[in-house]
Each structure stands twice: as structure tokens, then as C-alpha cells.
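pinned: reference chain
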Amino acid sequence: LTIAVAGDDDFIYNGFRGANLRLDGTAAVTPEGLLRLTNTTTVRKSYAFFPNPVRLKPANDGSAPAFSFASTFVFGIIPEFSLGSGHGIALVLSPSKGLPFALGSQYLGLFNTTNNGNPSNHVVAIELDTVQNPEFSDINNNHVGVDVDGMNSTAYHAAGYYPDDADGGFQNLTLISGEPMQAWVEYDGRDERLNVTLSPLGAAKPRRPLLSSAINLSGVVLEQMYVGFSSSSETFQSSHYILGWSFKVNGIARPLDLSILPRLPRTKKKPIPLAICLGSAAAVSVLVAAAGVAFVARRRAKFSELLEDWELAYGPHRFAYKDLFEATHGFRETELLGTGGFGGVYRGVLPCSKAEVAVKRVSHGTRQGMREFVAEVVSLGRVQHRNLVRLLGYCRRVGELLLVYDFMPHGSLDRLLFDLQPGSTTLGWSRRLGVIRGVASGLLYLHEEWE
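pinned: its C-alpha cells
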């Protein structure tokens, strides 16, 4: 039986030929019945969702505990190059069939710079991540993580499994090996525990899960949620495949029939042209050079920027992403000054000048109007007024704009007006009047005096 749907809360796909799924981005079902999420031709995010919502709480009782659920799926990740891969795959529970405002690349199509970590997301994801992102405190570039409303995993483990033999020691699995693997995700609503298990395809499910996390999802999931997969790719691109998938609420997911699953396409590895008579010393040199190329390529991808010809005129006002990354310690959470409607603001110290700055990360999903916007940013950088924060410049990446301001050591004005700490002094009316005059002076300068 290839496809069986007993109800919206119990379904199984032994291959996806003829499957009714909601597909977005580059997601597609191949003629062989593989669900291919991303490919090596386009840099973007992709989704594949079961078309109907699953019920994870009793009707009209949002405060009730979340139901138990279980899922198993077989996946494979085939990188375009052996030196690196695109980002990974995530099994997602979401309030909607797709996440239109989410970013690809390191955000896996789940969140963006503005809503990352926001409890109002109501998103749960099990990530199979193949890129290490320091800003999310990733442990390595080959791990499994539990993401609740943000990319900083609440629980994580290096990818692998614990076989049931006498030794039972941890065995590593390389997610980008191009080999099929099976994953099990099981949430026990009564015990409030989430287990994630991996194994090579064909091996029995290990009794010991790879990751077991005490977590209560009752405050995260809604009465009805959509379940599916999300993935993304960027500089180093990969093809992400799902071979089979089973899901069930309040029960054990039906086992997949591995004998009828479609096969992953064969990978074509490019041969390295080495002469037969190459000496051992030269071979070592080649290996060192290859490692150096991989390191440089990964580093360039990590600090990659988006630069178009028309931006060359704004050179003095453009910052290198590498400098801003180092200035904010990788946009570490401890450097976060606050968040607003368009993104988070981080404190930083520029590595060369040692000047303190505030860096705002703004997500954008289109290039339309970007040239005009950057021109306005640079124009505002020439504004000089004692009541206006000086805009120093900008940086652009795919899907992201970074604005650099002077750092205000005394914090935001609203803290002095509204967020009074114990023992602090309330601003008197004369001081408040001075604040109002300063704001008015700055507005007058912008609208009538500055050219």
C-alpha cells in the first residue's frame, strides 16, 4: 500500500507518487515518487505540508494538554559538492500551511530575524541541521535539534544512534552522506516528553532514543496544526529528499514498508585529477590544500554579502558583514539591546576603530525598491543633529539588511519615561518638557531645515 489516509490524524506515504500535498518553493514529487524539497539549481526555501490540519487538542479547549503524536520518515541529503552542503531539513508543526514571512538559509524557512524566539509563533520543529550557525549556538554542522518558536534549540545532539548491541555506544551518522536514514519523532502528552531517534535505513529502531527532552508543548501547539517539512539551501546547495512518511495522533505511527520506498538518485562524484606517480608528500599537500579550500569556502559563505554595481558609489557607507559579525560576537543574545517591529538591535564594538555601535538586523524578502531605500539610508547618514541618532551605514545579505547606528550608552528614552526600576527617580515635568522640545527640534530639522 503506497498511500493510506485513515483520517487527518493518521496517514502514511510509502513514496509520494500521486500524493496530495501542499508544495511550495522548489518542492516537487519526482517521477520515481521521491518528495524533493530543494535542489541544486535554485537558492530558496521549500515546504511540503499535509493538506489538512491535525487536531492536537480537544475542540474548544485551548488550555487542555496537548495530545500525544508520533511520526517516522525516511530522508536523504545529497550535497552538490563534497566540501560543503546547504542547510538541513525540519519536520514542522505550524499554525499554517507554510511560513511566508520566514527566511531561508540558516533559518530553514521557519523564522526570520524579527520573530525568531517569539512565543506567538506557535511553531515546533525537529531540525536535521548540516551547517553550524554560531548565532543560534549550534553545537556542530551535523546535529539534531528541537526548536520551539525559534532557532536556538531547546535540546540537541550530534546526529547518530545508539545500537542495541552489547556495547550500545554512540555511532555517528553523517547527514550529508547521500545515504538514506530513518527518523522517529514521538511526543508523549501525558509524560510531557519528546523523543527523537535516528538509524541507518534498514536497521531496527534503536530502543534508546538519540535525544529525549522533557518539554510541555501544551502552551505551544494550538487546537489544530499543520504538519510537514521545511528546508533551505544557499551558497553550498543540496538536494533534500523524503522517501516515505507516517504520522499519527494518540498512537504509534504506522511502520513504513521499506521494500517499496523509492531509491535516492546516485551521486556523481567528480574525480580529482591526481597523477598515478604522485608522491606521498605531494598527496599530503593536496589534502592540506583541499582542507584549506573547504575552510575558506565555508568562511566566505558564512560572511557572504549581497553587492550590486549601483552600490559601489556608497562604498564609504557600507560595512563588511564580517566586521559586524565580529563586533556583535556573532549576534550573540547577550548583546541584544532590544527588538522592534522590524528586527533586533545589537550592541557591537567595531574591530578596527573600537567604536561602539548599534546594529539593527532587518529582514526583507524582495529587491524591489532596495536601490531607492539604500540611497535614503546613505542620505540620512549625512544628517547631523544633537537630537537625532546618527546612522553610520549599512550592509546587505540575501534576505537581510543591517543598519549601523551610533551607540546610545544610556539606553532608550522609553525606559526613562515608562520602565522605571526600583529606586530610580521619575523625570520631572521640566525634564519631560525638555524631552518634548528636543524631539520637536529633531522633527523640524528633518522636515524643513535639512537638505
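why pinned: Residues 309-411 form a domain with the Phosphorylase Kinase; domain 1 fold (CATH 3.30.200.20). The helical segments are 280-302, 321-327, 370-380, 413-417, 429-449.
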